[in-house]
Amino acid sequence: MTYNVGQVFTVVGIDYTHDGLGVAKIDGHTIFVQGLIIGEEAEVEIVMVKKNFLVGKIKKIVVISPDRIKPLCPVATACGGCQFHHLSYEKELDYKKNKVLRAFHNIAHLDLEADEVIGSDVPYYYRNKIIMPIAYDKRKNLIHGFYRYRSHDIVAIEECFIEDKRSAPIIHTIKNLMKEFAYEPYDETTLKGDIRKIMLRTSYYYPDIMVVLITKHGNLEAFSQFTKQLLAAHPEITTLIQNINGDDTNVVLGQQENIIFGPGKIRDKLLGLEFSISSKSFYQVNVLQTEKLYQKAIELAKLNQNDIILDAYSGIGTIGLSAAKYVKQVIGVEVVKQAVRDAKENAKINHVNNVVFFEDDASDFIEKLEERKQKIDAVFVDPPRKGLDERFIQSLNNLRPERIVYISCDPATLARDVALFIAHYQVSKLVVVDMFSRTYHVESIVLLTRREQ
Ligand code: SAH
């Protein structure tokens, strides 16, 4: 049978994809439906026909799941930012656990159990880093929001329910000032405009708020007046930065930055330590869950006072500094210059003397450690989504630390990498942590312990 856009079928939710869509079947053909819960029966309209699958949109739910809840967010289904506003949080955690186990089964051929799933007490309003594109809608109103699933159309929002509540009023003021000053939003098709995106970084433990105005160029008319008015309207902004990004790519921040007001950084705390954070440094987006993540990672590493440990992909040094009091020496490595600078400053602020941070590519660095036969007892690795490369894994296998704690925000690359350690290491623990509530993203921690050889 051939399928056409616009046809309507009654289907039953049987599964979820790795990116949080509902899965159903029509005569054996797979259809993906955003917002469809397992067990629900719904009339869906086909909106896309592909060779191997269909995409549908719910028209009417015929049998409603007991796991369905009323979304806080009015654009939950249209917006690609979140996937689970309509699902009970308990079921979201189940989904996340299963997603990780499935990745290990399919990719690493390992059938694991999760030792623990660490949920959030408040799965809303947690994000401390907000990046908002601003654009015109069809009627030339200025809108801000997230992209629709797999597109670059912005779904307009008033507020976002997973972001720090302090961000929305500031974004609204910036849009109003853009109108007043006739600043054009950056247009991704004509590649023209003045303001590209707004980035905000808020502190959990301090009142600090950083606003970064990402502009296409450095010649905005009356820009100092614009920023003065913004700061006057929002005295809660503790630092304001202009970032100039002239490149026509998806990269958010450009090279050049001007600090307009304040120190150009914010402060925050994790596990009682204080951290200074610049605009370009990585910082975990959910502070309360990060504290649980680090605590668990440190517990799993079974650190002791004679240990020399490596914090690979160390960012601003948060894991290494949190672990430092339990060990003899911490060695950190990170590739972003500003982050390494922050990490060194953070060691000073917290009077931690047994850490050293290096600016280097993690794989190059670990090869150097291998060459000089550096003794390493335990390793924390926390790479970006793309995971580790084979060079890194090989050198780490050769360095033979007793314990490796792998923290990952992508179960697929985690499973792929763990498979390459398995000849020398066994998976002793797997913990799933919800850092990104209401979205399909999931964080996990794996403890690898060296096999006796
Ligand atoms: N452990 C930190 C940072 C984790 S995010 C924390 O919990 O906050 C991953 C970090 O890896 C980022 O800071 C990123 O800049 C860094 N990174 C990315 N590629 C890298 C590479 N090739 N070598 C070293 N660090 C890298």
Please sum up the structure shown.
Helices cover 24% and strands 30% of the residues. The strands form four sheets. It has an eight-stranded mixed beta sheet, sandwiched between helices.
Label this structure with key terms.
453 residues, alpha/beta, eight-stranded mixed sheet, seven-stranded mixed sheet, globular, binds S-adenosyl-L-homocysteine
Write a structural description.
The chain is α/β, with parallel strands linked by helices and 453 residues long. Helices cover 24% and strands 30% of the residues. The chain has nine helices and 23 strands. It has helices at residues 89-108, 167-180, 223-233, 287-300, 318-323, 337-349, 362-371, 390-399, 411-421, and strands spanning 8-12, 15-16, 22-26, 29-33, 41-49, 54-63, 116-118, 129-136, 142-147, 154-156, 195-202, 209-215, 239-244, 256-261, 265-270, 273-278, 308-312, 329-334, 355-359, 378-381, 403-408, 425-433, 443-450. The protein has an eight-stranded mixed beta sheet, sandwiched between helices. Strands 10-9-8-11-12-13-14 form a seven-stranded mixed beta sheet, covered by helices on one side. Strands 1-5-6-4-3-2 form a six-stranded mixed beta sheet, with no helix packed on it. A hairpin with a 6-residue loop joins strand 9 (142-147) and strand 10. The protein starts with 7 loop residues before the first strand and ends with a strand. The structure holds S-adenosyl-L-homocysteine. S-adenosyl-L-homocysteine binds at residues 282-284, 313-315, 318-319, 333-336, 339, 361-362, 382-384. Residues 282-284, 313-315, 318-319, 333-336, 339, 361-362, 382-384 line the site of S-adenosyl-L-homocysteine (SAH).
